[in-house]
Amino acid sequence: MVKSKINNIVSEMGIDFYNSIFVKKSKRYFKRYEKLYNRATELVQSKGTILELGCGTGVFAGNYLSKKTQDFLAIDFSNVGIGIAKTNYPHLANKFKCQDIRKMNLKDWKSGNVIMLELLEHIDEDKEILKNLCSGIKVIFSVPYNEKVNSKGYPMGWPTHRRSYSEIVLRERYGNLICLELIEKIEHWFLVLGRRL
């Protein structure tokens, strides 16, 4: 197996940064994710409750997931993001919760799916989050695909990305935690379906 360099780039951004992004960009910011969200929705199994981690302003849960099932919970650490989600989707307000996923016991989530779209590349504790999932749980997640890097090897995409992903990096970083059943390239992302080992 070819070994690859995994770059940790900048300091992980805190809640104030994400709160300001959510206030500025609210709905229009997420239009670019449409193909990714549609395909992720197709992969969701509707048996059991679905847990979305890092839901931001609730666009995936409110516009896509809710058309497939009402049995879900969407979580983000940004009170501003959750507030926008509850305002934009008032009929689903009880489905959105403000909580730091790094402090949750995710092993209690034993059925359904765990969804993490555009989350893992933003946090230092990505592997710890995956380790904290219940063995056998279905996992759907996305990470950016082969972002351009500068001359020092750092991603030039979104300034909060902690690392850049190729398929090799994806398999090396998460393959011992998740049985990677499907890896699809959708525009700028890898969309991954698997089960926690």
Can you describe this structure?
The model is unreliable at 1-10 (pLDDT under 50). Helix 1 packs parallel to helix 4 (79-88). The chain starts with 14 loop residues before the first helix and ends with a strand. It contains six helices and seven strands, in the order H-H-E-H-E-H-E-E-H-E-H-E-E. Helix content is 28%, strand content 21%. Strands 3-2-1-4-5-7-6 form a seven-stranded mixed beta sheet, with helices on both faces. By secondary structure, it is α/β, with parallel strands linked by helices. A hairpin with a 2-residue loop joins strand 6 (178-186) and strand 7 (189-196). It has helices at residues 15-25, 34-43, 59-68, 79-88, 126-131, 167-174, and strands at residues 50-53, 72-76, 96-98, 113-117, 138-144, 178-186, 189-196. The chain has one domain: 3-Layer(aba) Sandwich (Rossmann fold), CATH 3.40.50. The longest helix has 11 residues, at 15-25.
Helix share bin? 25-40%
Strand order across the biggest sheet? 3-2-1-4-5-7-6
Low-confidence stretches: 1-10
CATH names the topology as: Rossmann fold
Termini separation: 21 Å
Tally of distinct domains: 1
User: Can you give the mean pLDDT?
Assistant: 84
Radius of gyration over alpha carbons?
16 Å
Beta-strand fraction estimate: 15-25%
The class by helix and strand makeup works out as alpha/beta
Number of helices: 6
> Judging by the overall fold, what is the CATH architecture?
3-Layer(aba) Sandwich
The largest pleated sheet is described as:
7 strands, mixed
